[in-house]
Structures are given as structure tokens and as C-alpha cells.
Amino acid sequence: MNPTIKDVARQAQVSIATVSRVLNNLTGYSEETKVKVLQVIKEMGYQPNAIARGLINKRTQTLAVIFPCVSNSFSAEVLHGIEEVAHRHQHSVIVCNTSDDGKRTLNYLQVLREKQVDGIIFASEVLQDSYYEALQAMKVPVVLIATETDKPHIPYVKVNDKQASYDAVNYLITHGHRHIAMMGGTKDDLVAGVPRVEGYKQALADHHLPYREEWIVHADFQFDSGCTAMEQLLTRPRDYTAIFAASDEMAVAIMTVAAKHGIRIPGDLSVIGYDNVKLAEMVVPPLTTVHQPLVEMGEMACEKLLTMIQTGETVDNTIALHSIVERKTVSDLRD
Amino acid sequence: MNPTIKDVARQAQVSIATVSRVLNNLTGYSEETKVKVLQVIKEMGYQPNAIARGLINKRTQTLAVIFPCVSNSFSAEVLHGIEEVAHRHQHSVIVCNTSDDGKRTLNYLQVLREKQVDGIIFASEVLQDSYYEALQAMKVPVVLIATETDKPHIPYVKVNDKQASYDAVNYLITHGHRHIAMMGGTKDDLVAGVPRVEGYKQALADHHLPYREEWIVHADFQFDSGCTAMEQLLTRPRDYTAIFAASDEMAVAIMTVAAKHGIRIPGDLSVIGYDNVKLAEMVVPPLTTVHQPLVEMGEMACEKLLTMIQTGETVDNTIALHSIVERKTVSDLRD
DNA sequence: CTGAAAGCGCTTACAG
DNA sequence: CTGAAAGCGCTTACAG
Fold first, then answer.
1. What is the domain-level CATH number for residue B186?
2. What superkingdom heads the lineage (chains A, B) (predicted)?
3. Å from A116 (CA) to C6 (C1')?
4. So what's the pLDDT on residue A2?
5. Which of A60, B173, B253, B269 suits a disulfide with A54, CB 3.0-4.6 Å?
6. Is residue B147 in a domain?
7. Beta carbon of A55 within 7 Å of strand C?
């Protein structure tokens, strides 16, 4: 057994209350006893039991983050940011992988409640009513990342998806493209699916450019379904010069499938992505894309959560700033 | 305040002992009281406090996994596997990101001890003596993943790095390559650095093929340093037809830099990677590489850890099976 | 400056 | 079948 506070109290010949005081840097003991207690602690290799502490303090110093999928680079970068500031503030982070499964998500929520986590970060998924209710019942601060809600007291950190998409398409337009296709994300995803398509349509409309149903294709943001979607698009007449993809993985899928069909990028077809994950710089040619500051978004979300935990008050949303990162997949068609 | 066991006991007009019994499916209560208690629990929305439980049971149902970097796809895939089996066995997982910083690692170890985690998975890093001592002091089961140690009672899950590298180089050789360069990982990394270079040298020696100092270059497994290393290699005479890279990210770096220099792959230069992360299928041309079953390795490590926790006994190492995944970056030079 | 005692929310002998 | 009581390892009034 590891030594407990009782053991050091006995050894130092003081009460456990005194040991607790020096442990927590409170007042109420002489320099002499402090020295003695500290020495005994060192000798015995004593470390406080955070579980016992948590029971009294009602703080576990533990946060949880819920992802639909932990193994894509989007999640990985966000997680990196979260973990970084959590650690800086002496908090641990539990990761949950829902696999987009509602039951599983609810199950996680219950476990997190039982484990008394101090706060939850909910990422990249629509906040269902059932989740919201469970979260309400937990009485724990929640912040959203790369998603949003109209429910009160739940701040979010995200980019303006519609605007970012608008800017991406606008970038293509200012480079002379007038016939632009799109690979959207999950069709009825109200957060990352719909708004990005809206931004696309808006940009076309504002420039009086044609919009065609056959130019749009949908996938689930990932590479594999992106390949399928691209094959599907290539089934139709290729009367566009550029494609806007609602994620980098899908953009890369476009590049891969294009290569298979002998379509050169950007010579025959321009591509612009969305996310700016590391992958975007690793492909050849490197992908022009919309940058989302993922690591920073993770950091900001975690900071928000921490201040909500500390103050007990709700915090404002923040719209993270996106930008276009110019690389080599968009050709300039202007003369 | 959320209701406690006391609240339901009062409401159901039984003792807390009885509530605890039905909660834990023990024996010792009538069907009648069971029904009543369960109903009250439901009405009040009562959920047990895992912290209080943990204090008594000395089990927190929480595991920790320590990575040098959580945001690369290697870690992401391993984490995915770990989280999956942990969740299946009702355990949560805390992630720690050491950034390869020894002090920070030791700090994590202390936190994990205070938090009374039931077990630790230590990934992709050499187990320093100082870590080992801290781990010993915690008296908690540990399993290693993608790394190894000669310390007792610490099983590992990994591929045979030397053999896997040997096989990669042998693959190049059987495809007619006789002058083969290598981009190694961190030079004095005893786990993933040295053995992979040894496998490379051994394969050359066994086939009486030339080995040259100038053909070897080192990076840190990641893309960025891989680019630098490739630039450095291109500074020297290009009298080889293939390169073996000790990670997929470095292989992709080779491809990127090669493209910049107008070197065609696999026409002018063949490349074989190591890991088989998702990235390998996403690049153009898709990367031929050594497959490590990362998700499965995460799963196996987690299962090992769980059985060590349950039985209190050490478990055997497992050498995960690697294989060569043939894609499009190695040209066949045989006539 | 210091300690005895109550209590956090549970589980588990023990007694009936 | 059921409850009173001790105890897990701490913190925190309270009293001195």
C-alpha cells in the first residue's frame, strides 16, 4: 500500500489536519512543523489521493472531450490543443469516441457523469436534444467545438462555415473559374454540411455564375467516401474547371481519383479544400485550402471550459478566423 | 445537487446498504424492495458517484495512455484501438501528450498516480529509468506499445522492427533494386531508430549489395524533418534507385521533395515507407509500405493491460505481424 | 499554532 | 431479508 495522510501524520507526530494544511499551502502551522512534515512526505514518497480529494472538493480536475472519431487528423489536432491547455491548468482529459453512435454517446455521458468530470468539450457533432438533456442533468459546463447550438449556456468555438466556403469559392472565381463543382459533406448535417453548400451557392449567385445540381456530390468528409463521390461526379459531364471540397480529406480523394483517370491537377482541374490539416501540405501538388486554426480552436475551447468551471458563468462564443492558404492546386485562368 | 444514495434510501424507506445492494446486483433483498428501489432511482434520476466508489474499491475504471505526440496519425490510430476496447470494458482513457519532454512525462506520471488510474499504456517512447522507477512506485500495471524494455513485468506489443525493415529492403531487392538509400528515424533511438537501420544493412549484406554511408540520412519520423533530410540527401550523388523510409510521413516527404526537384516516382526513384497509416493510401501515387496493424496493436495493448489489472499477473509480450502493402511507388527493375 | 471530529458518497463485514 | 456502523483518504469548520 502507498502511504496515506495518516501514515505521514503518525510519522511526523502531528495530526492529519496539519499535514493537510501544509499539503495545501494553507496557514496555521509553524515553520518547524512544516519542515518536519515536508521531510516525512519526501521520505515516505507520499502522494495525495486525488480521488479522496475529489470526493470532498467536488472537483476531479478532469475534463472530457467527445469526438465522433478520434483517429482522423482533424480530431487529432483539436485534441492536441485541448490537452495542451488542460495540462497547463493541471487538468486531465478523458477522450471519448462516439463513432457517430447516439446510444454510445449517451452511454459516455452517463459514465462521465458518474466519474464527476468537471466539464465537457463536445466536438464536430450536432448536439442532439437527448444529449442536451443528459448534459443538463449533469449540471456541468459544456463547450462546443466546430459545431454550434441555439441552446442557452453552451458556447462554441468555430469558424463561420458559410463565410469560409464563400471565400473558398470566391477565391476560385477571382482566379478565373466560372464553372465550379462541389463535394459537400454529410448532406443534412446542419453544421458542416448545409452551411458550406450555402456558402458555395451564395458565391456563385453573387457573381451571376451558373449553379447546377449535377455539379454537387456528397460524401462524409472522409477520404474513402470522397473517392466514391468523385467517381460518381466523373460519371457526369466534366464541364467545370474547379471543385470545392468541404474537407481536405475529400479534396485529396478528388486528387487521387483524378490521377487515376489521367486528369491533371491543377492543369485540367483545380481543387480547393477545407480544414488545412497537415495532410494538405503533404500531398503533391500541395493543396490550396481554407485554413481552420484547429489546434488553437482546441486551446480556446479548453480555456473557455476552464473559465466556466472556475466562475460558474457562461462565456461568449468565439468565431475563429479562417483564411485561404494558397498552394498549388488552383490554376489561374485569368488572362 | 444531484441525489445521493442517501436521498434514494430515504425516499424508498430503506437503508443505504440495501440501495447499494440492488445497485450492485448483490443478493439480500426481496423482489418487492428491489422494485421499489429501482423505481425511486429512476424517478430521482439517481446515478452513483464513481469517485466515492473508487475510493473504496481502489479501482477507478480509468486507464491512461502516454504518447510523445497525440496529433500524428500513428498515435491517432493506436489511440482509436485503445479507446475502443477500454470502452467495451467500461473503462475510460486519459490521454497524455509528453511532447518528448522528460520532465513533463514525470509530471504526468505523478498526476496519474494521484488520480489512481488502474493502468498505463506507454507508447512509442523509450522507457527511461526514471520513468520506470516512477511506474514502480505507483504499483500499477504498465504495457508498452511500439517500444520495448528489458525491465521485468512490463509486456509490450510491437512489430519486429529489424525484421520488418529487412523485409522492406528485401522487397526492393527482389524488384531488382541494387543501390538502395535509407531515411532513418531518430539516430540513436534504440527502438525505432537503430533496429530499422540494422534491418536495412542486414538485407544489403545478405544480398552482397553495396552499403554506403552517404546513402543514409536521418530525420525524426515526421514530415517536416523528412523534407529537410531529403534535401540533404539530394545534395549528394543520386546513384541509388530506391529509398527505404522508416516512416510513412518521411516517405511522403521524400515524394514531395522529389516532385519539387522533378524526380518522378516511381519512374526515377522508388520509395517504400513504414507504418501504413491512412496517409499512405491518400498520396499520389499511393505508397508501398510496411504495414503495422496500429489499431489492433492499440486493442491488444489495452486487452493486455485489462487482464493484468484483473489478474494481477504479468502477461506475455506480443510481436504484431507486419506485412508489405504493395501500391505504386516501387518500380520493378527486373527484366 | 494545533487537533478532534464531522463529513464527502459510497461498500462491506457484522449482527439480527 | 435488512440495517447500523465502520471505513476508504481526504478537507474543513470548530474549539482551544
1. 3.40.50.2300
2. Bacteria
3. 23
4. 85
5. A60
6. yes
7. yes
